[in-house]
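Worked example 3 (structure in, sequence out).
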């Protein structure tokens, strides 16, 4: 018999909620654990500014006193108001290969959503687009990344068996870093610079980039991503939070800003050394030795770089601005010895984004899916 328990969102309880996922994948060579402290901060109402416009409930499944599954159910009022829908989201979902367990978890989420007046439930999604989203449906033998979900192949089958249908797919690509900037990128970049008066801005000081372009960077993300599937506009409180969380971690060589003649930001490319193997060695914990593995991942030898974020203002999309980003970044990729670059998940229908990889040798190596069910 499966018992479902609502989880009171204290730090101690949320650590157990997060630890369940890490324990479920113990020994799996492709799973990359989150930092437990990061997931707890995301799920804790007093720590995550998304709770200004979201509410959530967390459930865990137990059998004979042993945890066998978990799920979060979230209502993002901002997205619902923008899209004129009454949708709940399920996310942070993990379970053993047992239909009774997955069914009980999804039912708990659905019942809560109905009580809140929701008409549909979709997922896996987080509070915002900066959280993990999408069930992996292809690419199970590929090493996961810090920014994405890894799950066992049985997840999609379970979700579909409980009445869910495909809502949308994301695809991901692995690119080979070229030995030099492709000639076509150089030609396009030079044309775009002259035609639009654009230039690349680089920083060596984190405080300066935060002060001069921190807010502009996240406002650009809002402008560039506003029409994407279930996008949740970042608020000023969220932007302040993410400036402090993310910009302190970056190697500024791997951050490229494109500005107009008046210094207005119109494009950004942010990369980071792959943290996958470092996170695996840390087992999700900073202490006592996790910090060492993470620091080594940031500073040590690495053959893979993650393309965390590429955003171009709508006025400049499809005008070659991406060529400027990669004209700047590729020499740094070569300098640091990166052989491969990982894209973040991209909507399968987003041909604008996928076209930017056309001058690289690429392989689509993962696909992930969101599901929907009418309540």
């Amino acid at each position: 018999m499966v018992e479902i328990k609502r989880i009171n969102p204290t730090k101690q309880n949320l650590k157990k909620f997060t630890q369940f996922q890490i324990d479920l994948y113990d020994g799996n060579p492709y799973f990359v654990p989150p930092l437990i402290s990061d997931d707890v901060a995301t799920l804790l109402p007093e720590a995550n500014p998304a709770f200004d416009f979201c509410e959530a409930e967390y459930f865990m499944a137990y059998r004979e006193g042993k945890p066998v599954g978990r799920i979060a159910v979230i209502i993002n009022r901002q997205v619902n108001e923008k899209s004129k829908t009454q949708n709940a989201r399920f996310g942070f979902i993990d379970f053993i290969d047992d239909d009774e367990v997955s069914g009980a978890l999804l039912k708990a989420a659905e019942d809560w959503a109905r009580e809140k007046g929701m008409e549909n439930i979709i997922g896996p999604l987080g509070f915002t687009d900066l959280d993990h989203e999408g069930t992996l449906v292809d690419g199970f033998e590929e090493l996961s990344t810090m920014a994405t979900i890894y799950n066992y192949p049985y997840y999609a089958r379970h979700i579909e068996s409980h009445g869910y249908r495909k809502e949308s797919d994301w695809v991901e690509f692995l690119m080979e870093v070229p030995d030099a900037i492709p000639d076509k990128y150089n030609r396009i970049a030079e044309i775009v610079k002259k035609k639009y008066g654009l230039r690349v801005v680089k920083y060596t000081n984190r405080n300066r980039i935060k002060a001069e372009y921190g807010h502009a960077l996240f406002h650009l993300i809002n402008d560039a991503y506003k029409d994407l599937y279930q996008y949740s506009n970042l608020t000023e409180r969220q932007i302040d939070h993410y400036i402090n969380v993310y910009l302190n971690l970056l190697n500024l060589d791997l951050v490229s800003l494109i500005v107009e003649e008046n210094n207005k930001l119109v494009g950004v490319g942010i990369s980071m050394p792959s943290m996958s193997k470092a996170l695996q060695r840390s087992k999700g914990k900073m202490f006592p030795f996790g910090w060492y593995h993470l620091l080594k991942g940031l500073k040590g030898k690495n053959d893979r770089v993650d393309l965390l974020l590429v955003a171009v203002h709508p006025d400049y999309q499809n005008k070659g601005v991406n060529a400027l980003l990669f004209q700047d970044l590729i020499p740094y990729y070569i300098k640091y010895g990166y052989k491969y670059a990982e894209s973040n998940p991209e909507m399968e229908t987003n041909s604008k984004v996928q076209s930017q990889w056309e001058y690289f040798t690429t392989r689509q190596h993962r696909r992930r899916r969101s599901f929907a069910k009418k309540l």
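Notes: Confidence is low (pLDDT under 50) at residues 287-293. The longest strand covers residues 362-374.
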